[in-house]
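Propose amino acids for all 649 sites.
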């Protein structure tokens, strides 16, 4: 290998063809060329956040007179100014031009936005060397808070099962593609990918490439880094490339562009020693031909009531291009992408993106003929019967202060068991049903024996979740709760599964088509469904919430998580939703009937069905509940549908 450098120099002397056709200055003749340097104010941003670029020419800031470009697979796209913002997650490449002088390439990674209230994991790097030393470090956030030390970090590689990562960093001696996620308080985070590449020999140079594919447009560039052990020796090394049967020639600097499509192989030479070989594919530049666009709508039929709406989306080869398209309704331009009307009729809709026209779709707006209010209760429930209200005691040695979720789950399960028996079935011998019987030191039995099950068979030092407690009782599964960090939430002490032996016979009663998750007990969160994480505003939020309430009672009933604070981030409390009132003309829910394990503070506590008025809260568009209750006012955080025996069966 020590003679390799002489071998390569022979090819240079022979003037053989190589990777670039442009003429290069003699190696021993210094050339004083102007240098344009591009920098960004961040290498990572969240979708929707902007990144700002600065261009410096030989030490002078020339940002105002430079032009900035994004390099794409279809060609170079000039930016409007020196900023860039997008909602699409991915890695983007940029360069600047000042006159005929081109800058370096800068890459910016656009990350998926963090969902408030859910963990988000980030990796310190996307590639490591599989030498057991090079490490990637993970940081887990909950909103703005670093929760790394309270989270469990897991990884998967190939088809192997997930295993816990030791601490917040990861090393390996096995090359491969690894996927990592974090779990905090039973909630799983986003997934990040890290590639582990084979470790080089310790005394040989190791070559890394910034990407494996570029566009052969003379602008899109791959950047190389050369290591000797952990030392960066890029600028003490020569980087060579080969294409087809052409001989190797030195790459100019540490980056490479080309206008010739093909498969290229690169290696570095340091102190006469050749590195590993890296392959890069240069694809031919595609002609920028506008592709067809497709128009879709969330609803094809709406009510002509001024509230019900349909929302349009325009896609181009699977990419959302709604923001760069114009939507026409009956020949007139639609302001935005939502359509609402008070005039009944059929409306023809299409979209335009430049000169490309989409398909046409027809939206039918139906005349509103229904008037008045309709009251709907869960199957078998009336204002005076069929509902349950387990009350917490929170006294003496009880320790049930955190068990609102258990009280609500008990109410819901007992309702389902009542409907199961009313349909002519017999409860399994292992089922728990009826009033409580256990006598505690400071008080007597609970309203339902099911509450006594959760009291004795769970560790209730923390709050819990209905969508985990209910499947635990029926099937003995936790619906994701098994990933919870130790001590972060209530956990069962026994395996549950009181209906496990006959569950295959029961599943026809359980609707599993909820959009939120595939299951019969689930959660629709305010933020993602009708709150600030959506583009719904004002009464639109109440309309969407109303739609979810109607859906829940079509297939069963629901639990409701409320907050005593209008900011929705504190004082969460689980309650049971038994019925609702809806305005037939608008489709908006106007009243709710709820039982609450905390609505009474003194013994004796008796079952009570609370009536709440429903409205949109002033200033923040939250779903506000008001009534003659202990709280006076509270706000909806989430709705938890539980299927079985609804009107849709």
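Proposal:
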């Amino acid at each position: 290998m020590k003679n390799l450098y002489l071998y390569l120099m022979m090819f240079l002397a022979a003037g053989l063809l190589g990777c670039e056709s442009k003429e290069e200055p003699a190696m021993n003749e210094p050339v004083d060329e102007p240098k344009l340097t591009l920098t960004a104010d961040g290498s990572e941003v969240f979708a929707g956040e902007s990144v700002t670029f600065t261009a410096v020419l030989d030490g002078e800031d020339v940002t105002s007179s430079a032009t900035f470009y994004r390099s794409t697979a279809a060609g170079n796209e000039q930016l409007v100014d020196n900023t860039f913002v997008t909602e699409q997650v991915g890695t983007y490449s940029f360069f600047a031009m000042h006159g005929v002088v081109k800058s370096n390439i800068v890459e910016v990674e656009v990350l998926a936005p963090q969902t408030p209230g859910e963990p988000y994991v980030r990796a310190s790097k996307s590639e490591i060397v599989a030498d057991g030393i090079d490490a990637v470090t993970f940081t887990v956030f909950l909103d703005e808070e670093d929760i790394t030390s309270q989270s469990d970090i897991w990884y998967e590689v190939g088809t192997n099962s997930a295993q816990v990562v030791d601490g917040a960093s990861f090393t390996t001696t096995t090359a491969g593609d690894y996927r990592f996620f974090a779990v905090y308080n039973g909630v799983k985070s986003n997934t990040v990918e890290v590639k582990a590449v084979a470790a080089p020999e310790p005394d040989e140079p190791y070559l890394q490439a910034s990407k494996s594919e570029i566009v052969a447009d003379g602008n899109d560039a791959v950047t190389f880094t050369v290591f000797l052990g952990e030392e960066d020796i890029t600028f003490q090394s020569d980087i060579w490339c080969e294409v087809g049967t052409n001989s190797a020639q030195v790459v100019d600097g540490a980056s490479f562009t080309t206008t010739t499509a093909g498969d290229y192989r690169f290696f570095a030479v340091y102190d006469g020693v050749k590195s590993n070989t890296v392959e890069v594919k240069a694809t031919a530049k595609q002609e920028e031909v506008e592709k067809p666009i497709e128009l879709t709508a969330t609803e094809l039929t709406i009510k002509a009531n001024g509230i019900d709406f349909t929302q349009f989306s325009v896609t181009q080869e699977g990419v959302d291009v709604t923001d760069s398209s114009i939507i026409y309704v009956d020949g007139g331009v639609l302001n935005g992408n939502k359509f609402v009307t008070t005039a009944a009729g059929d409306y023809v809709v299409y979209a335009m993106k430049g000169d490309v026209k989409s398909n046409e779709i027809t939206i039918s707006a139906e005349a509103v003929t229904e008037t008045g209010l309709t009251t709907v209760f869960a199957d078998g429930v009336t204002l005076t019967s069929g509902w349950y209200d387990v009350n917490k005691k929170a006294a003496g040695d009880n320790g049930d202060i955190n068990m609102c979720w258990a009280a609500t789950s008990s109410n819901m399960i007992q309702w389902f068991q009542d409907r199961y028996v009313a349909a002519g079935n017999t409860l399994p011998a292992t089922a728990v049903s009826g009033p409580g019987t256990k006598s505690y030191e400071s008080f007597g039995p609970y309203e339902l024996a099911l509450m006594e099950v959760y009291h004795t068979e769970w560790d209730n030092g923390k709050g819990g979740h209905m969508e985990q407690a209910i499947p635990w009782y029926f099937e003995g599964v936790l619906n994701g709760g098994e990933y919870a960090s130790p001590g972060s939430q209530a956990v069962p002490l026994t395996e549950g599964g009181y209906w496990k032996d006959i569950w295959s016979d029961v599943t026809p009663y359980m609707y599993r088509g909820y959009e939120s998750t595939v299951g019969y007990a689930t959660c629709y969160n305010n933020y993602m469904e009708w709150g600030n994480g959506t583009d719904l505003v004002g009464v639109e939020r109440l309309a969407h919430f109303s739609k979810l309430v109607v859906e829940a009672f079509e297939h069963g009933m629901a639990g409701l998580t409320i907050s005593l604070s209008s900011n929705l981030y504190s004082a969460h409390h689980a309650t049971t939703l038994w019925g609702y009132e809806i305005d037939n003309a608008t489709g908006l829910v106007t009243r709710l009937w709820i039982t609450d394990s905390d609505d009474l503070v003194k013994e004796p506590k008796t079952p009570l069905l609370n009536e709440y008025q429903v409205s949109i809260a002033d200033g923040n568009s939250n779903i506000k509940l008001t009534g003659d209750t202990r709280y006076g006012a509270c706000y909806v955080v989430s709705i938890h549908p539980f299927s079985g025996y609804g009107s849709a069966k």
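The longest strand covers residues 187-198. The first helix runs from residue 4 to 13.
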